[in-house]
Specification:
With 466 residues, this protein is of the alpha/beta class. Helix content is 40%, strand content 16%. It contains 16 helices and 14 strands. The mean pLDDT is 97. Belongs to the glycosyl hydrolase 1 family.
Length: 466
């Protein structure tokens, strides 16, 4: 039944769902795929909860027809997936593996036959181990290798993929991976994280150059994760603290792209720690080539205020303490804030705020929500269904928040729910479920959850109840 619900989206709005290669494909040693840093990391004892890894995951490499059929059943108009670099170029550079390319060609043609627009991410964290052995993202050359891999994919799929994202969540691939140590390769050095961040941005820019050279019809951009810090009071000190938080997490990656420079105040704070991005001549011009769109991943945010006890910037401190000192803010846990099953506060107001902030900060760029969703671990019940009420409520509130941002003039073109399937949730392994579809990792049986049916209705009506 078509209805006209109160929350109505623009007619061309692109609804879809997202996944990433290592989290769903499995088939880790099939058809010439070589290991990535995530294979090595997950197989190092103590790194991933329960010793889980992506060897099998959702077996989507073999079940790709079934997964595209589920997308079609849901009514998705787009599907955001990522391309595994070590499947396509097992050594990271040089030789191209035709079987790797063939898999993505097949996926793309299945999607197109189903009327679903393919949206490809080139780097969702699975750096070929062979490149890591030579220094990985610490190595400036890796940015060039990434662009060469991107070029191979543009040549293979450029005519049939309308939307491209270069790097997914550069904050995670640098700080979470090289300073906090929770993601592969699991290092704890802030100086290295800043270097890696710069090389990821450079890789993005060099891939942009390859894309532009080919004069393809599609669109390209980066997909950073953003969060929101809402001042706990209008005290200028609290406002300044939130600005530092935004500098540290959001602007560090988005300013270079849209303004051709790192945020000056935060760069000065890093300099006090003796840390500088390794910028060479021409880098910022390469990085700031005008992208067609911005992908935004949003999950959570918080209220924050100036710290009761400001931390000094001290080069000798642990990376965690240095990062706390750079931000120099206290998160305020507002009573009554619910959390998802991964303990992230549910803050849909922050979604509207960060989107209007992006509008004002970067000249209202076209935005695709490349990820938004909730961890809700509800399992299959006695009735054979999955009543994931928390996820439905989370999505409903975030869709309303998104609509509010569109009404206030933000140029938002689409929304990709994270995630199509329960999958390998990085350092949490299979214990944290983000899927609209439940996956039994023993049998690989897929069961659409209540959220899948709810989302499917939303797509059919191009809107929802207020
Ligand atoms: C994102 N953090 O990861 C990723 O793009 C997805 O692959 C992932 O499954 C999804 O969000 C849910 O986690 C993040 O600790 C992982 O701040 C960790 C963090 C943020 C994002």
């Amino acid at each position: 039944m078509k209805s006209h619900p109160p929350i109505q989206f623009p007619s061309q709005f692109l609804w879809g769902a997202a996944t990433s290669a290592y989290q769903i494909e499995g088939a880790h040693d099939v058809d010439g795929r070589a290991p990535s840093i995530w294979d090595s990391f997950a197989k190092t004892p103590g790194r991933v909860v329960n010793g889980d890894n992506g060897d099998i995951a959702c077996d989507s490499y073999r079940r790709v027809e079934e997964d595209v059929a589920l997308l079609k059943q849901m009514g998705a108009r787009a599907y955001r997936f990522s391309i595994a670099w070590p499947r396509v170029m097992p050594h990271g550079r040089g030789e191209v593996n035709p079987l790797g390319i063939a898999y993505y060609k097949r996926l793309v043609s299945l999607l197109r036959d189903a009327g679903i627009a393919p949206m490809a991410t080139l780097y969702h964290w699975d750096l070929p181990q062979a490149l890591h052995d030579e220094g990985g993202w610490m190595n400036r050359r890796t940015a060039q290798d990434f662009a060469a891999f991107a070029a191979v994919m543009f040549d293979a799929l450029g005519e049939s993929v309308p939307f491209w994202f270069t790097v997914n969540e550069p904050w995670c691939a640098s700080f979470l991976s090289h300073a906090i140590g929770e993601h592969a390769p699991g290092e704890k050095d802030l100086n290295r994280a800043v270097t890696v961040a710069h090389h990821l941005l450079l890789g993005h820019g060099l891939a942009m150059t390859e894309f532009r050279k080919r004069k393809l019809g599609g669109q390209i951009g980066m997909a950073p994760n953003v969060d929101w810090r809402e001042p706990y009071s209008q005290d200028p000190e609290d406002i300044a603290a939130c600005e530092r938080g935004l500098d540290w997490f959001n602007r560090w990656f988005i300013d270079p792209i849209y303004h051709g420079r790192y945020p000056a105040a935060m760069a000065a704070r890093y300099a006090e720690l003796g840390i500088r991005a390794p910028i060479e001549d021409g880098d910022m011009a390469t990085i700031s080539q005008h992208p067609d769109m911005l992908g935004i991943n949003y999950y959570t945010g918080s209220f924050a205020k100036a710290p009761a006890n400001p931390l000094p910037l001290r080069p000798g401190d642990s990376p965690q303490r240095q990062m706390d000192a750079l931000r120099n803010l206290d998160t305020v846990n507002v009573p009554g804030f619910a959390k998802t099953h991964i303990d992230w506060p549910i803050f849909p107001e922050g979604f509207t705020k960060v989107l209007t902030w992006l509008r004002d900060e970067y000249g209202n760029p076209p935005v695709f929500i490349t990820e938004n969703g909730a961890c809700d671990n509800t399992q299959v019940g006695h009735d054979g269904q999955v009543h994931d009420a928390l996820r439905v409520e989370y999505m409903h509130r975030h869709v309303i928040a998104l609509h509010r941002a569109i009404r206030s003039g933000c140029d938002i073109r689409g929304y990709m729910a994270w995630s199509l399937l329960d999958n390998f949730e990085w350092a949490y392994g299979y214990g944290k479920r983000f899927g609209l579809i439940h996956v039994d990792f023993g049998t690989q049986q897929r069961t659409p959850k209540d959220s899948f049916h709810w989302y499917s209705q939303l797509i059919a009506n191009n809107g929802c109840a207020a």
